[in-house]
Specification:
- Chain A: It is found in: Membrane.
- Chain A: Keywords: Acyltransferase, Lipid biosynthesis, Lipid metabolism, Membrane, Phospholipid biosynthesis, Phospholipid metabolism, Transferase, Transmembrane, Transmembrane helix.
- The complex is a heterodimer of chains A (451) and B (203).
- By secondary structure, chain A is of the alpha/beta class.
- Chain A is 51% helix and 10% strand.
- In chain A, helix 1 crosses helix 6, helix 5 packs antiparallel against helix 6 and helix 5 crosses helix 8.
- Chain B has a two-stranded antiparallel sheet.
- Chain B is globular, with a radius of gyration of 19 Å.
- The chains are: A alpha/beta (451), B mainly alpha (203).
- Chains A and B meet through strand 1, helix 4 and helix 13 of A and helix 2, helix 4, helix 8, helix 9 and helix 10 of B.
């Protein structure tokens, strides 16, 4: 029996050996070497274009199928469920007063609050930013489809093939690349760390960081378009960007060198952090230091004061938002008083949703999602540098930068705090509303006493 | 066609809700998606905490009263499994009060009897925001409570008291120092309730 299997055994071994060699050679030639030199064959763009055509076909097919079966097709509320009227409290109440002879309080005053309240139950500006965006067309991932009944064999077959390709081919490929990228990062930065401080070390550190991040970019099949590269952040400044996922860091750092800011972690992250800081100065905080705002501010200002150090990369929202809006920027980084380089990042949700819903998914689950999507497509805009103007305080400066980023990226500009993902809204906002209404009430009585 | 809402909504349910509330098919599915996204516990029903998680509602001075309106007195099994939870039908039933009145012409397949979004029903909804103990009368205390919620700490007790007294005086016709539903309706007869208490649902 065994001798019967023997020739097959060695044959299989040989075949496996050959395929591995071929596999790794292809990997090396098409992915790793270009990453080292920063060139691209353009394979990913071709891939992206063909995917778009495929998705459009799939959507049309589903619409046709639904019509044939006379089913209702679910359309996402991309235009909103309701049309809200942008009427303020004062306007509304003035309108209601017009008919009658100026009583101080009218029982109908509650209508405004009542309607606003129910409108916010149906559609509010904040809670929808913490879940993934809904898509117009289907991208052959069941995780984003509500309509997937069996409409046509061809469509189901396509979906099935998609699953095979993504989990059977793309996922292992990407995981290999990810490990390579991270491994190289740790090893090479440690080696660079052995050099004496000086220009050579900085040069090597830059090259090493860029190379490893580029490999990671290919590990995610990220297709990134950089705009306005003349505005790239320079030493002695702070780079701020909107935050959608941890991948933002990889996307920005594969095009320029930054000093990272973050908390010291344990485990694998800790290893990576310790290795990185050997090659060039990043800013890692202990857990206890994070609470001390003065300490944080001091370390950041010291870093930017040193012209030889790289620009700091900060995400002022403090948490991941789903890339349809930009939420309140924390003022800490804007108080330091150096040049701010804003960057806007916008993901194309058709190929894979990059948003990390940290209250729902853990990191590993998220990375798995990312690596089994079709691709990550995004655009990065480098905006011209901004500084704090005369008479502007940190909060106003932060809002100005936020508005510029929102405008460039085509995102909604919100004043709400990203912390609302987990925390409650502050009472002070309700008190503002109450104050407004009281003014309307009392204001009218003042008019009466005057007349 | 992205949506995390699972297919727990059956066609029969949609038809029933359509008959009861007058919403269209697509409006019902979209509102179901919204209901589902508010339902953090994923148990098919919303609790008061789920509503309070909406920041714009939490800062609304009458937020708590509005949330109350979704949880009717007693346990009508169709709308609530428990007293502090409201299911999708109950949710839709309350929202139906805010449909614009013109939409009724488009949906002829409503049950007989007054539609939920008639002027009277809209007024009744507002009335219940005042009438906390649901005894069909707005007492001076209840009126004061609502006033206090709306103005916060910015107006003194005496001033607020005199506002309440004046309001009751003007509305009360049968001298019982309370405002009944018919007196409430009379006071607001010149107000365009249909427009003020309507939300423009997109189709």
């Amino acid at each position: 029996m065994e001798s019967y299997l023997f020739p097959f055994d060695s044959l299989i071994c040989m075949l496996l050996g050959i395929s591995f060699t071929v596999w790794f050679t292809l990997l090396l030639v098409f992915i790793i070497v270009p990453a080292i030199f920063g060139v691209s064959f353009g394979i990913r763009r071709v891939y992206m274009k063909s995917l778009i055509k495929l998705f459009e076909w799939a959507t049309l097919r589903m619409e046709r199928g639904a019509k044939e079966k006379n089913q209702h097709l679910y359309k996402p509320y991309s235009n909103g469920i309701i049309a809200k009227e942008p009427v303020s409290l004062e306007q509304e109440i003035q309108e209601m007063r017009r008919g009658s002879a100026e009583p101080e309080f009218d029982m109908s005053d509650i209508f405004y609050f009542c309607r606003r309240g129910v409108e916010s139950i149906v559609d509010d500006e904040v809670t929808k930013r913490f879940t993934a965006e809904e898509l117009e067309s289907w991208n052959l991932l069941t995780r984003s489809n509500y309509n997937f009944h069996h409409i046509s064999t061809r469509l189901t077959a396509l979906w099935g093939m998609g699953v095979l390709i993504r989990y059977g081919f793309l996922l292992p490929l990407r995981v290999t690349l990810a490990f390579t990228g991270v491994g190289l990062l740790v090893v090479l930065t440690s080696i660079v760390g052995l050099f004496p401080n000086g220009r050579m070390k900085n040069y090597l550190s830059d090259k090493v960081h860029l190379m490893c991040y580029r490999i990671c970019v290919r590990a995610l099949t990220a297709i990134i378009t950089y705009h306005d590269s003349e505005n790239k952040p320079k030493n002695g400044g702070i780079c701020v960007a909107n935050h959608t996922s941890p991948i933002d860091v990889i996307i920005l750092a594969s095009d320029g060198c930054y000093a990272m800011v973050g908390q010291v972690h344990g485990g694998l992250m800790g290893v990576i952090q310790r290795a990185m800081v050997k090659a060039c100065p990043h800013i890692w905080f202990e857990r206890s230091e994070v609470k001390d705002r003065h300490l944080v501010a001091k370390r950041l200002s010291d870093h930017v004061a040193d012209e030889s150090k790289l620009p700091i990369l900060i995400f002022p929202e403090g948490t991941c938002i789903n890339n349809t809006s930009v939420m309140m920027f924390k003022k800490g980084s804007f108080e330091i008083g150096c040049t701010v380089y804003p960057v806007a990042i916008k993901y194309d949700p058709r190929f894979g949703d990059a948003f990390w819903n940290s209250s729902k998914f853990g990191m590993v689950n998220y990375l798995l999602h990312m690596m089994s999507s079709w691709a990550i497509v995004c655009s990065v805009w480098y905006l011209p540098p901004m500084s704090r103007m005369e008479g502007e305080d940190a909060v106003q400066f932060a809002n100005r930068v936020k508005a510029a980023i929102a405008r460039k990226g085509g995102l909604a500009d919100l004043l709400w705090d990203g912390g609302l993902k987990r925390g409650k809204v502050k009472e002070v906002f309700k008190e503002e509303q109450q104050k407004l209404y009281s003014k309307v009430l009392v204001g009218s009585s003042e008019d009466r006493s005057r007349s | 066609m992205g949506s995390r809402a699972s297919s727990l909504l059956r066609e029969e349910d949609i038809e029933e809700i359509k008959k009861e509330t007058g919403f269209s098919h697509s409006q019902i599915t979209r509102l179901y998606s919204r209901f589902h996204s508010l339902d953090k516990g994923e148990n098919g029903a919303l609790s008061r905490e789920d509503f309070q998680r909406i920041p714009e509602l939490a800062i609304n001075p009458l937020g708590d009263r509005i949330i109350n309106a979704f949880f009717p007195e007693g346990t009508n099994k169709k709308y609530t499994a428990r007293e502090d939870q409201v299911n999708f039908r109950g949710f839709m039933r309350t929202l139906a009060h805010f449909r614009p009145v013109e939409d009724n012409e488009k949906n002829k397949d409503l049950t007989s009897g007054e539609p939920l979004n008639s002027r009277t029903n809209k007024l009744h909804f507002a009335f219940q925001l005042y009438d906390l103990d649901r005894d069909d009368k707005i007492s001076r205390d209840e009126l004061l409570q609502v006033l206090r919620m709306m103005v916060g700490v910015n107006i003194s007790d005496e001033q607020l008291g005199s506002i309440a007294d004046r309001t009751i005086q003007e509305a009360d016709t049968n001298g019982d120092m309370c405002i009944s539903f018919s007196e409430f309706t009379k006071v607001l007869e010149k107000v365009d309730v249909e427009q003020k208490m309507s939300i423009r649902f997109l189709h």
